[in-house]
Amino acid sequence: MCLALPAEVVSINEEQATAIVALGPVKKEISIALLENVVPGDFVLVHVGFALHKVSPDEAARTLALIKQAGEDPIEEFAQ
Predict the structure, then answer these.
(1) What topology is assigned to 5-79 in CATH?
(2) How confident is the model at residue 64 (pLDDT cuts 50, 70, 90)?
(3) How far apart are CA 72 and CA 42, in angstroms?
(4) Which of 1, 12, 6 is nearest to 65 (CA)?
(5) What is the average per-residue pLDDT within 30-51?
(6) What is the pTM of this model?
(7) What gap in Å lies between CA 77 and CA 80, rounded to an integer?
């Protein structure tokens, strides 16, 4: 399944417009070039290596719960 998954921003590299994000134990470097004012602690929707949209922590949790309800493992999806 190809979804945008919520992940928490761990750190930012402003020069490269990238961030390290985490979903459970999985961390990835992604582009934040499409968003403004991203800071560590924010939650973003990640799709194909890009942060597409900021979401609240509650919205991130609800999204992950819905994905699990659909029978998918969001952490496994994110790790790919």
Answers:
(1) SH3 type barrels. (2.30.30)
(2) very high
(3) 24
(4) 6
(5) 97
(6) 0.92
(7) 6
Q: Say if CB 44 and CB 53 are below 8 A apart.
A: yes
Mean pLDDT (whole number) for 5-29 = 97
| Distance between CA atoms of residues 80 and 72, nearest Å | 13
Q: Going by C-beta distance under 8 Å and a sequence separation of 6 or more, which residues neighbour residue 72?
A: 1, 3
Measured between alpha carbons, how far is 63 from 80 in angstroms, rounded to an integer? 18
Q: In 3-state terms, what secondary structure has residue 74?
A: helix
Q: Is there a contact between 18 and 10 (Cβ–Cβ < 8 Å)?
A: no
Domain-wise residue ranges, the chain: 5-79
Token match 């992950």: residue?
Answer: 64
Indicate whether 28 pLDDT > 90.
yes
- 38 in Cβ contact with 48 (< 8 Å): no
